[in-house]
């Protein structure tokens, strides 16, 4: 949750500073509504009886989460930049290649014991294959979303992923869920609608202005040739 709350402002700042993305008032309102929804989830977790225990070093954990969220924001903004300036096929190929190398180094250094303890069988391979397929579909669709709506919309959309855990707790584990979760999900959904609808309006108006500008340039070019 803290990762989501920190990564979104980082993405906004990075896209505004490096990619020159314009954020109008209505888009900021949509972002604020989404963040308010995720803050409600955090508030519900803090006051839940089954989440009352904290880690051995919460300050260190929070700092690691903030660092991870910052790097995640840098990754998303960089990917948006390359998506809009380079070939998407090449981007996905390089992302898969270097991602596999980095993941291999990570698992060999940090998770060797866990990897050795796995008893490989047909039943054990299936969850890993499903996870790999899900990640393949996710990272194949991310460049398309980044090119259409940008990294801010991607991070706002990821806020809805937390609600899947709520549904699993309700329907799979038969646990009771605080009503604040549903209010938070509604807030995130409303914020996404506000942000995306205004983003579409800006794109349409920008497209009309671009078309008018191109038409004016063509007329000026024709007039110059005739004279």
Question: Overview of this structure, please?
Answer:
The protein is built from nine helices and no strands. The chain is mostly helical and 227 residues long. It has one domain. Helix 1 (2-18) runs antiparallel to helix 2. The model is unreliable at 201-220 (pLDDT under 50).
Query: What is the chain-wise order of helices and strands?
Result: HHHHHHHHH
Report how far the terminal alpha carbons are from each other.
65 Å
The structural class is: mainly alpha
Mean pLDDT: 80
Instruction: Using the CA coordinates, give the radius of gyration.
Output: 22 Å
Low-confidence segments, ≥5 residues, pLDDT <50?
201-220
How many H/I helices?
9
Shape label: globular
The tally of beta strands, per DSSP, is 0
- The proportion of residues forming helix, as a percent range, comes to over 70%
Number of domains: 1
Q: Characterize the main sheet.
A: none
Estimated share of beta-strand residues: under 5%
